[in-house]
Design a protein that fits this description.
173 residues, globular, mainly alpha, 72% helix, 8 helices
Amino acid sequence: MNYDIDVAPDELARLVVQAAENAEAQGYWTGPGPIAADAVRHLTRFLGLLLAGDDDVNRHELTVYSQALRGASGDEATHDDLRAAAMETMEMANDPDALHAFLGQTPDYLRAILAMDRERGTRNAGQVVTALGGLGVAMLTADGREAEEEDSIFTTHMNHLRGELDVHGVAAE
């Protein structure tokens, strides 16, 4: 079997939001507001942490961030808006308790997808976690530099999300 691993950030982000919206349409979302807003908020924070995790915001990283958020929300943001969103996320990164809580938290939209997968035998949560991993790698490699802080954020959060798949008996893609 041959897999295309060159998937654009907007397509990966759209996959995340579409899986969430599917769970909402099937009645698995019990949170406040639309599930898409929860998914976009998680993507914004996760990718924002990776974007600014090395205290440097590179234009290539902003491009990946922009593509991902456009795919997730359908909205076009300026580089200044994106930079501001990343800097807001950095406030969380500078608070060790808040950062630790985020990295070890399963977003509510993913919980809804996991519930749908368990009940229906689908594999959407694994696809979402794989897409998040792809988005993270795209962000990490965009500036051509390796930063220990960014790698740690990525690894910690992805390990947590993969662990959630295991706990709930849902396979990753």
